[in-house]
Amino acid sequence: MRQEIIENLRSALQKPIEKERVVYIMVELRRLVDKMEEENGSSLPEWDRVKHWCNWAVHTNLTNKEFARGTLEEMEKFIIEHPEDKFHHSDFNHQFFSLGDLRGNLYNMLEQFGLPSDITNIPPWLMFAKYLVEHLKDCPLKKSTGLIREFRFIKKNHIPEAEKYSVDYEVCFEDSGKNFTGSVLRFEREKK
């Protein structure tokens, strides 16, 4: 079964990047991580970042699920440990939405299995990340208790003429007056 998953990934990775294909790749990566963990008899920490993003991509409702609760509780801990005067959005982004970490882990995983890793190169990676985050807009992380109640990607800004693109997010607290927003993906390409 592992070889079948690898071949499915090989085929998908050799085709142009489209939103549906990105989701399919995430599903197959999750299946591969599950198979590897099953064969190993335990979790594989080196694939935690890939598994984290795959979990998110394959679920349609993450309200109060262990994955959503765990992620939001980690965000709460980070915010509590970084009071307002020491809180920086860039640190928060790096801790929780480091697409660079995902890119590096994904590259290592693809290389380990002899799979094409071109999607981790720039500019294909920017398109892959863009489609992944766009897909995740439909799947906010929610929980009913605690300081943070919801995290969601909220909008994309695309200015085709300038080749600018960004995706923003919102963190919603139990006291809705303290919500904050940030940007997780931002890039600009030169017009040709």
UniProtKB/TrEMBL annotation:
Species per Swiss-Prot/TrEMBL record: Candidatus Zambryskibacteria bacterium RIFCSPHIGHO2_02_FULL_43_37
Protein name: Uncharacterized protein
Domain of life according to the entry: Bacteria
